[in-house]
Amino acid sequence: MLIDCHGHTSAPQRLWAYRALLLASRGVDGPSQLNFTDDEIRHALMTPESGPLGHVPSLDAHGIDLQLLSPRPNHLMHSEQPEKIIHWFVEAEHDLIHRQVQLFPGRFRGVAALPQCAGAPIENALPELERCVRRLGFVGCLLNPDPYENGGRGEAPPLGERYWYPLYEKLCELDVPAHIHATTSRSPRVGYSLHMINEESIAILGLLNSDVLRDFPTLNLIISHGGGAIPYQLGRFDADSLRHGATRFRDRLRGLYFDTVIYNRASIEMLIKTVGADRCLFGEECPGIGAVVDPETGRQVDELRPVVDSLDFLSAAERQMILEGNARRVFGLGEI
After folding, report:
1. What percent of the chain has pLDDT over 70?
2. What is the Cα–Cα distance from 314 to 62, expressed in whole angstroms?
3. pLDDT in tens, 113-163
4. Which residues are catalytic?
5. Under CATH, which architecture does the 3-330 domain have?
6. What torsion, rounded to 10 degrees, do the Cα atoms 285, 290, 294, 299 define?
7. I need a labelling partner for 242 at 20 to 30 A (CA). Which of 94, 99, 122, 224 fits?
8. CB-based contact 238:250 (threshold 8 Å)
9. What's the pLDDT at 336?
10. DSSP readout, 228-279?
11. Does residue 112 sit in helix, strand or coil?
């Protein structure tokens, strides 16, 4: 089985209209019940949006059997006010994903997006996480390390700070992982792709320079996009740890998990050799930004199964870990 641990939903257009309405009215009119029909949901998943094929046809073309499906991070509005519009929109997305899982059983499992609001206590996001896991059957959540969305109004605490501890406690209680994934960037100087890489790098340093992994030994955290820039700047952080007599940085990296959404063979190879096959989860974000044809290979940039299969230093057991086994274990998927 091939499991894509990093997928974002394709939604009916009425969901995006609802988002625009919330932003325009700032919640004056209250939340809406969208009540999508089955046909609307199927149409959204079958019609091209982010690439040449629709969502489900893209999974078929890439041989993906199961995708972990979450809201699209750049739409989550974490830096907006009032806080209630963030909650209403995220709840609508979660209800939609739940319907998608029901309509395509065995093809999708839900992953929540925390309704984070810049400057608000993280405890405010926990009731929706609990609803998603206990009532909707979701298997994890996205964690945005920068709810201010690079907007200059403030700065979130590093992920090692006590601010985040109530979330970590809840994740351990529910026995689900968090997939660390930044959202959009409000800065005209730093686009959202660069912002994501920066924030994922900052997240790793905040975690590994703290007591989080010691305080929460059962906590599972996945870093998106191959760990930002960290695995590729490893020498610098190794040197700093050796200079201060600390545990070598590369050894501490193995307390985290990483997905393969990097879209470059050499980078994927370096990631696996740096952190180990047992810490890497196959991810394509299919379909997403990589849904374009690479002129050198003739395949889409996000078609990564051939890349993993081509890495001849991997044993059959290690390849199985990356393509399926690690996701089953980290997300508690069991038999599917």
Report:
1. 99
2. 21
3. 999 999 999 999 999 999 999 999 999 999 999 999 999 888 999 999 999
4. 285
5. Alpha-Beta Barrel (3.20)
6. 30
7. 224
8. yes
9. 63
10. TTGGGGHHHHHHHHHHTTPSPHHHHHTTSEEE-TT--HHHHHHHHHHH-GGG
11. strand
pLDDT in tens, 206-259: 999 999 999 999 999 999 999 999 988 999 999 989 888 889 999 999 999 999
pLDDT digit string (tens) for 269-327?
999 999 999 999 999 999 999 999 999 888 999 999 999 999 999 999 999 999 999 99
Q: Dihedral of the CA atoms 267, 271, 277, 283 (nearest 10)?
A: -60
Backbone angles phi and psi of 37, in degrees to 5? -80, 160
> What's the chain's length in residues?
336
Residues 6+ apart with CB under 8 A from 41: 12, 96, 99, 100, 103
Q: Nearest Cα to 169, choosing from 241, 217, 210?
A: 217
E-strand ranges in 123-210 read 141-143, 178-180
- Please name the amino acid found at residue 48: P
Number of Cβ within 10 Å of residue 117's Cβ equals 23
Give SS3 for 6. Answer: strand
DSSP H or E segment with residue 317: helix 316-320
Q: What is the layout of strands, in order, in the sheet containing 66-70?
A: 3-8, 66-70, 108-110
> Under DSSP, is residue 107 helix (H, G, I), strand (E, B) or coil?
coil
Query: Which residue matches tokens 């393969």?
Result: 260
Average model confidence (pLDDT) for the chain? 95
